[in-house]
Design goal:
The protein has 7 helices and 8 strands. The two termini are 31 Å apart. Helix 3 crosses helix 5.
Amino acid sequence: MKAVAIILAAGEARRMGHPKALIEHEGGKSFLQSLASTFGKAGSMVLGVVGKDSEAVREQHPGMELVEAERWQEGPLLSIKAGLDAALEAGADVVLLHPVDMPALRASTLKSLLKMAGDVDELLRPEFEGAPGWPLVLSRSGAERLRAAEGQQLEPALATMKVRRVPVKDPGVVVNINTPETYERLFGTQPRLAPPPKRRGTKRGTAPATSNVAELGGGSAPMAAASEE
């Protein structure tokens, strides 16, 4: 079973002030790098979908497979379709959709979800304490159906699909780091860009500490919708 993860990073990120794909997460890694590593550990191929600031994202992530969403301004579903085209062309049996501003996801959670993916008709979605989370795990038929959906927004398209909800113990499936206030609460500093590739691995005394997302699981965590803005 070939799994392909699509990390959605095409939005404008107006509230954060920096492209979310480039913001520093942990250990000098960007949000996008951190997620690519997590999905890779779970055995998934990784595609990033870029739009706004695509040139800067490509420069920061040499060697990563990035897909251009030429119509990213027309709504998130158009960016998702750009990723789905690439994933299905690559022969994906399972497609995982995940926003770039949710980098706290655990690889162990992904492995558990992928074990269930073979029994899913169209869509599997994790939930934490009753709140719907990410990634969306699509069978190939589910991915094809989503790719054929009309409109510009994701949620109306999902409402027509067969969804299996799976409770998980990972708050990372719902924690959305999409505002400066949330970032500062987690890391103790204002959002900032990850260091350039050539500087990674060097010692930096002011790198953000590991985010304690577990303490956000009790209802104070920003819940992720279908936003990649």
